[in-house]
Design goal:
Keywords: Cell membrane, Membrane, Transmembrane, Transmembrane helix. It is found in: Cell membrane. It is a multi-pass membrane protein. The chain is mostly helical. The protein has one domain. The chain is built from 5 helices and no strands.
Length: 127
């Protein structure tokens, strides 16, 4: 069994639940129209929002299949970093408790994705 299996399944569940529900409750369209378009991505906010969420679904499937892990990881990490820059950093560190909507969750997902992508560390032959 691959040492990253539990992490891959966990991140896949998180990516799927974070994406799929928004596909059915208008959350993705709202994020595109009411947030992304308003901060300067108009008229592409909705398309960008859908691209982000579909990239999460594709990444989740790839993580479950243990295929193209680094590609899935890099794309997802880029999305998470942009989420920190555009949404979460102004809210601080904490998601709950010491604050609300902060960046700690994205930070943890980035570190877990790096652990999945580089299970033996950053050795020269892994890069």
């Amino acid at each position: 069994m691959n040492g990253t299996l539990l992490l891959r399944i966990s991140v896949a569940i998180i990516l799927l639940t974070h994406s799929v529900f928004g596909m059915f409750n208008n959350g993705i369209n709202n994020f595109g129209n009411l947030y992304l378009n308003q901060i300067g991505f108009a008229p592409f906010g909705v398309a960008l929002a859908w691209s982000i969420k579909l990239s999460h679904v594709v990444a989740a499937v790839l993580l479950l299949l243990n295929k193209y892990i680094k590609l899935a990881g890099f794309v997802t990490i880029l999305v998470l970093i942009m989420g920190i820059i555009l949404v979460h950093s102004q809210e601080g560190w904490f998601v709950v408790g010491g604050g609300r909507n902060g960046m700690e969750y994205n930070f943890l997902l980035i570190v877990v994705l790096l652990a999945i992508m580089y299970p033996n560390g950053f050795k020269k032959n892994n890069v």
